[in-house]
Write a structure and sequence with these properties.
Oligomer: single chain
Order of helices and strands: HHEEEHEHHHEHEHHHEHHHHHHEEH
Number of strands: 9
Structural class: alpha/beta
Largest sheet: 4 strands, parallel
Bound molecules: adenosine-3'-5'-diphosphate
Strand order of the largest sheet: 5-4-6-7
Number of helices: 17
Radius of gyration: 19 Å
């Protein structure tokens, strides 16, 4: 408990006591705050983000729940938006910086450190916060900021979180089994979850307001990256020209941001980003359907039933 609360003010500690609490995945506890589960130290930063962030025209926000392809989408968005500033083949910032350093999280790198996003245009930022809890200025229809969301099949997402967590969970928190983690996941208890609510929040907004939110699926990007890069560039207001298409710029973006390319870069093998995480943990297998080798039939049935029930009637399926 102490570890989770060490750096918090007395007021924040007292506030935490009022929130529903559950065992955490890589911290002692998770707290149910504004309808989603998060760590004690994230709450203050999220409140600050909600209170102070002023969306501006052309802002771009990459949104996701952890382990659904955030790193990839950050790399793709950064490369597309800045393709006239940096050549894609050499001396590109992605060759020496991790995508998380180029597209900072609003609730970690920025508002957790009283670091207000700067004036560069377009501002490129990221968040794991669910749609309903984003600051009002982003959600206002009159505001022309854009939100790009990436979702992923909930089975592979679970597996990815599980592997990531098992690498970074501090030993002193004690054992945490695959089965226990799965039960928590099925109960919605996972950072920024329940996952179905997270994806539904962004999905519904993308249906209601397609100019504001673009909803992407990891599997579809894997299946046809060039088609989705065109969609993404159009949505972001910087479509590829016929000349760029002819010159292979779309393929160049895809190649630069590919798992195979990023994983082998020195910065991603040996570097660190967000809160001193080793970048290498962000790149595991990037496979679609790997869950089939890890789930018992009972687990498959359990999570499939939950997802079907939760997504029923929404038009969203995996
Ligand atoms: P796996 O654990 O299944 O391999 P996030 O970036 O949201 O943390 O998601 C991490 C997942 O995305 C990991 O999945 C990781 O391997 C995969 N990933 C990272 N970079 C990628 C890229 N450039 N292309 C495709 N997948 C990538």
């Amino acid at each position: 408990e102490e570890d989770d609360h060490q750096e918090l003010s007395q007021e924040s500690k007292e506030f935490l006591l009022t929130l529903p609490r559950n065992k955490g995945w890589r911290t002692r506890n998770l707290y149910l705050f504004q309808g989603f589960w998060c760590q004690a130290k994230e709450i203050h930063a999220i409140l600050s983000f909600q209170q102070h962030f002023q969306a501006q025209a052309k802002d771009i926000i990459v949104a996701s729940i952890p382990k659904t392809g955030t790193t990839w989408l950050k790399a793709l968005t950064f490369s597309i938006v800045n393709r006239h500033l940096f050549t894609l083949q050499k001396e590109h910032p992605l060759l020496t910086s991790n995508p998380h350093d180029l597209v900072p999280f609003l609730e970690y790198n920025l508002y957790a450190n009283n670091n207000i996003p700067g004036p560069s245009r377009p501002r490129l930022m990221a968040t794991h916060v669910p749609f309903h809890a984003l600051p009002d200025s982003i959600k206002m229809e009159s505001n022309t900021s854009r939100v790009v969301y990436i979702s992923r099949n909930p089975f592979d997402t679970f597996l990815s979180i599980w592997h990531f967590m098992s690498k970074i969970r501090p030993d002193e928190l004690g054992p945490f089994s695959f089965e226990e983690a799965f039960d928590m996941y099925c109960n919605g208890v996972v950072g920024y979850g329940p996952y179905w609510e997270h994806m539904l929040g962004y999905y519904k907004e993308s249906m209601k307001n397609p100019e504001k939110v673009l909803f992407l699926k990891y599997e579809e990007l894997k299946d046809n990256i060039e088609f989705h890069l065109k969609r993404l560039a159009e949505f972001l207001g910087c479509p590829f020209s016929a000349e760029e298409e002819r010159e292979g710029v779309i393929e160049d973006v895809a190649k630069l941001c590919s798992f195979e390319n990023l994983k082998e870069l020195d910065v991603n093998k040996n570097g660190k980003c967000i809160a001193n995480f080793e970048n290498k943990h962000l790149f595991r297998t990037a496979k679609v359907g790997d869950w089939m080798n890890h789930f018992t039939p009972l687990m498959v049935e359990q999570l499939s039933t939950i997802m079907e029930q939760k997504l029923e009637g929404s038009g969203l399926a995996f």
